Amino acid sequence: MNINITIKPDFEALITLPPSKSIANREMLIDALCIMDNAQWQPSSHSQYVSDDILAMRRGLAARDGDTIDVDGAGTALRFLTAYWATREGYTVTITGNPRLCERPIAPLVDALRQLGADIVYTAQEGYAPLHITGRRLHAGHLTMRGDMSSQFVSALLMVAPTIGGTELELTGEIVSRPYIDMTVALMGCHGVRVSENDGTFIVPADRYLPAIASDEGDWSAAAFWLALQALLPQARITLQGLQPNSVQGDCRILTIMEQMGMTAHWHDDGLLTMDMSRALCCCCSTFADLTGTPDLAPVLVVALCLMGRPFRITGLRTLRHKESDRLEALRTELRKVGYLISIEGDDAISWHFATCEPHPHPAIDPHGDHRIAMAMALAAVRYPGITIENPQVVAKSYPNFWEQLKIQPYHV
After folding, report:
1. Is 296 part of the annotated catalytic residue set?
2. What's the confidence (pLDDT) of residue 278?
């Protein structure tokens, strides 16, 4: 199914943001690890989280011995659940996902867990899901992993480490998506486990997690769309609810980037955030950003900058080839449909310097099965009223009510 999108220049809305799925998935795993015996985990305070990724994590944690857990496209759930079930002594599960997820490598995490005594078998292609896991009593150890691998591998290992006697995890080379690792460490601290770091080595003690009140912090990754929309429509009045200014979420950096482009943020006593573009800079000013720590911001930022007519060069994108889609190619393909010719520089950078082409008369955007491409390209409706978004339901992965909040009838041709 497709939807046609028109965004009015005077768009006005109070947006209650979905809870951060990055925080929720980590808190659910830590909550499950608080159960030190073989009791069955049950969802509690996280029952309000309804995005597909969070539902996949909940299903996976609540699985029973012998179950096959299908996480669909939830990469975070695949990585976190692999580590979790590897520690569940006496339980056997199989974890799988959709075809795209089964093309995303997981060998570095599996290799590390095997060094700690895990029993994990690839049931199809070596190095990729599906995985057959027989839980064992794992042992402490010293692990070495490249820092430019997925931060979710690192987070999964860090979170299970206290329950298996502690672990030292040494990361070599450049560390990508570092804010997500910092988030993991901060949330572990909220549950009573203090992780220390020494020259790239994370030292996790043997310890017990303590229960803690779950966070209901809004998702800064979701907020990025609304900040971009406000920048594109200065006359709009968008109010965001649920964010924290001093967030552990790395994607809160989007506000700093927008402020550098002339946006002014107004935090109110009731926790609301409003924005305006009263300091808007010359549209010819170039934007340079290194998103090594926050690559998920790239789609919305790239689309917004093109639509604003601002040349840019964005680096630190090497992980985007292996997301829900090849996001670099997806952006190049879909932006061409609306008249922008962006350049991809290897696997790490993307740029635009005013190059244009004739746009399609009636652009139909293919999100490539990727929630972030769908939401980012929805911004093009500012310039192309009535633009079509194919397969709009992909936003349910992180933001199920996105179209309603954009005041678009969801999933309607």
Report:
1. yes
2. 75
Burial 135-153 (b: 16+ CB within 10 A, else e): bbebebbebebebbbbbbb
- Residue ranges covered by each domain of the chain: 2-19+217-405, 21-204
Q: Is 284 helix (H, G, I), strand (E, B) or coil?
A: coil
Q: Report the percent of the chain where pLDDT is more than 70.
A: 94
**Cβ–Cβ under 8 Å, residues 188 and 30:** yes
Tokens 């179950």 -> residue: 67
Q: Is 318 exposed, middle or buried (0-12, 13-18, 19+ CB in 10 A)?
A: middle
CB 134 within 8 A of CB 161: no
**CA dihedral angle for residue 309, residue 314, residue 317, residue 320, rounded to 10 degrees:** 0
| Overall fold of domain 21-204 | UDP-n-acetylglucosamine1-carboxyvinyl-transferase; Chain (3.65.10)
Give the type of residue at 36. M
What Rg value do the Cα atoms of the chain yield, rounded?
A: 21
User: What's the pLDDT tens digit per position in 264-277?
Assistant: 999 998 889 999 98
| Number of other CB atoms surrounding residue 404 within 10 Å | 10
Inter-residue contact 27 to 412 (CB < 8 Å): no
| Residue with the two structure tokens 């298996």 | 164
Q: Give CA–CA dist 133/118, Å, rounded.
A: 8
Domain 2-19+217-405 of CATH type 3.65.10.10: yes
Tens digits of residue pLDDT in 44-97: 544 444 799 999 999 999 999 999 999 999 999 999 999 999 999 999 999 999
Identity of residue 133:
I
43 touches 230 (CB < 8 A): no
Catalytic residue among 251, 296, 366, 370: 296
| DSSP codes, 20-54 | PHHHHHHHHHHHHHT--SSPPP---TTTT--SHHH
Backbone φ and ψ for 265, nearest 5 degrees, come out as -100, 140
Query: At 282, phi and psi to the nearest 5?
Result: -55, 135
DSSP H helices, 261-384, are 298-308, 327-337, 371-378
DSSP state of 206: S
How far apart CA 330 and CA 337 sit, in angstroms, is 11
Q: Which residues pair with 19 in a beta bridge?
A: 218
> What pTM value is reported for the model?
0.91
